[in-house]
């Protein structure tokens, strides 16, 4: 009975830790409006004379929704505001064009790509996980590695909420592999992936993720505090 009580407490603690991670990465540290998403090369004339004017119009269209999203990212995601970000509407005297309309009208632009990220993150907060997955999987970082990592982490969360363990772990691992030099996000991705793997009985994956975290990111707080050692010791592995 005591063992069962301990197991239940551990499950609650794990759920809280995963929830904290979910909140962290669906409230982006860097405002999406300040991000430059790089395009791949080629078709200079097409970009200059077709994409560029469309990007200008798209930026004007998304301005209100993007600003509202950035405000929610730094405070809290209210349902009413989230719906406006997605579908458009009025906030005070401001008429806002929703990101879904931007995606449909300005497909192929940098702005529409950015709108995919905003839509996916917003749907994740609304707990509409299939829609979150659909938009986040279409988003392309194109060199914006930190944002790509965050998109992968959010995809991990969305698949975890749908109890698709393999896909969730796949995306946590992808997030950790985007840029190993980005210590903060890589370490967080390994940590959340390890916690999730452990919670789902994927001990081999949990060991691998926690060992990589411990060896590669010794200054990460859960490593410094000995928390990762406790997880590894419980799994019968300590390095």
| Number of helices, counting only DSSP H or I runs of 4 residues or more | 12
Question: How much β-strand is present in the residues?
Answer: under 5%
Query: How many separate domains make up the residues?
Result: 2
* Spatial strand order of the main sheet: 1-2
Q: So what's the overall shape?
A: elongated
* Cα-atom radius of gyration: 20 Å
Would you give the CATH topology of the largest domain?
Serine Threonine Protein Phosphatase 5, Tetratricopeptide repeat
**Considering DSSP H and I runs of 4 or more, what fraction of the residues is helical?**
over 70%
Element order: H for helix, E for strand? HHHEEHHHHHHHHH
Give the low-confidence spans: 1-12, 25-46
User: Quaternary state, please?
Assistant: single chain
Please write out the topology.
Elements (H helix, E strand, L loop, with lengths): L1 H24 L18 H31 L4 H9 L1 E3 L2 E3 L2 H7 L4 H16 L3 H10 L6 H17 L3 H13 L5 H17 L3 H14 L4 H4 L2 H8 L5
Question: What do these coordinates show?
Answer:
With 239 residues, the protein is an all-alpha fold. The chain has 2 domains: 7-27 and 143-239, Alpha Horseshoe (Serine Threonine Protein Phosphatase 5, Tetratricopeptide repeat); 39-140, no CATH class. 71% of the residues lie in helices and 3% in strands. The protein has 12 helices and 2 strands, in the order αααββααααααααα. Strands 1-2 form a two-stranded antiparallel sheet. Helix 6 (129-138) packs antiparallel against helix 7 (145-161), helix 7 packs parallel to helix 9 and helix 10 packs antiparallel against helix 12 (227-234). The longest helix has 31 residues, at 44-74. The radius of gyration is 20 Å and the shape is elongated.
């Amino acid at each position: 009975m005591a063992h069962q009580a301990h197991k239940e407490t551990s499950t609650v603690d794990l759920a809280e830790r995963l929830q904290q991670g979910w909140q962290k990465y669906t409230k982006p540290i860097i405002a999406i409006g300040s991000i430059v998403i790089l395009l791949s090369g080629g078709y200079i004339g097409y970009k200059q004379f077709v994409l560029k004017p469309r990007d200008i119009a798209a930026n004007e269209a998304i301005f209100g929704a993007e600003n509202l999203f950035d405000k929610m990212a730094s405070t809290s995601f209210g349902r009413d505001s989230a719906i406006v970000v997605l579908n458009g509407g009025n906030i005070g005297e401001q008429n806002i064009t929703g990101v879904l309309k931007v995606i449909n009208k300005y497909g192929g632009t940098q702005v529409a790509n950015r709108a995919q990220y905003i839509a996916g993150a917003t749907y994740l907060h609304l707990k509409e996980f299939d829609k979150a997955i659909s938009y986040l999987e279409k988003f392309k970082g194109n060199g914006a590695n930190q944002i790509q990592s965050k998109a992968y982490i959010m995809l991990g969360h969305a698949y975890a909420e749908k109890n698709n363990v393999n896909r969730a772990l796949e995306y946590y691992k992808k997030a950790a592999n985007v840029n190993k030099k980005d210590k903060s996000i890589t370490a967080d991705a390994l940590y959340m992936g390890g916690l999730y793997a452990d919670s789902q009985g994927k001990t081999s994956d949990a060991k691998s993720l926690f060992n990589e975290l411990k060896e590669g990111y010794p200054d990460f707080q859960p490593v410094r505090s000995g928390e990762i050692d406790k997880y590894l010791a419980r799994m019968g592995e300590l390095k």
